[in-house]
Amino acid sequence: MNQVKHTYSKYIQLLGSRIALNSYFWIFLFILKISDADDQHIHSNLFYYSIILFYMLFFVILSYVNNLVLLPKLLFQQKRLLYILTSTALVLMVSFAYTYCMKWIPIAFADPGLFEMSIIMTPVTNDMSLLGILSDTTSYFPFMVVWVVLFTLLGYYHFSVAKNKQLQALVNEHRAAELAFLKGQLNPHFLFNTLNNLYGLALKKSDETPDAILRLSSILRYILYDSNIDQISFEKEKEILLAYVDIELLRINETPKTQFSIMADKPYFIPPLLWLPIVENIFKHTRNMAELEVDFQLTIVQNQMHLKSTNNIVATAQNQIGGVGLGTLKKRLALLFPNKYSLETTITENYFTIEMHIQLS
After folding, report:
1. What is the pTM of this model?
2. What is the mean pLDDT of the chain?
3. Which residue among 29, 219, 268, 349 is least enclosed by CB atoms within 10 Å?
């Protein structure tokens, strides 16, 4: 069954390919010509069709020399004047050769009726002199100029579409690489802080050390394996966030002034670890404080994610707020949610407040 679907998909893709679309165009043009001609009955079908196909060959040459050679080599390389001169020369040569053949074929086949045959409904004279050929060429040259202009516009359109796709692919590749780099900056920072906490517990020979190590293990597993995706469930993020907070609070006497509220009105999927620099920042600048004051609220309601955190800080830390963590968060938000987020920080007396708002969809 899968093989049949694959074969079917392959044929559908082939029928919609650029080569197929070009073939449809020339077949349509051929059918349009033979269905609208009033001189077909004079000749046998095979002879008539052969002559029409021969005349169409000039337009095929004109189209593809322009689109496959002149456009990519000249116009798309910003050599506009050279392209205009070269394409004009091409049209002049093709129209001259076309006119010459229209004059020569009736004489070669001793069939004056062929002077009336043309892709363009303009007959030629039987004057084979250079002046006679040039005179009749003026009837076809303007039409072929228009033909080339139309194909140039079409070629330029395809070029623009392909270029935009290429640029978008490069932007996406760069964006993915930069996000991976930014996440990589967060992880060592987090690990360094957490290991310091565990070291402090170990020095005190705390009974909570094994439990803290288990929490750290789950967090590291999350960072190494689960967070390497674009979106993850809010519930999983909440679980890891609370595990991190529990590890940090092991070294601090938790007080009623330490509040962490995390909730959502329905299941959501969000980019992982957006909260980490903010929570890291809370504990980074409160390590030497006798009493920790934190009001951390993270909510998602109607696709609007809102995080507001206020914590006390020592006066000497006011000029050190932010650092690599919050700078990295700003860059990541700009990549993930362009024009759909806000991030503001405020320092008042001995308190630091950060507020982040994201429109998820």
Report:
1. 0.55
2. 83
3. 349
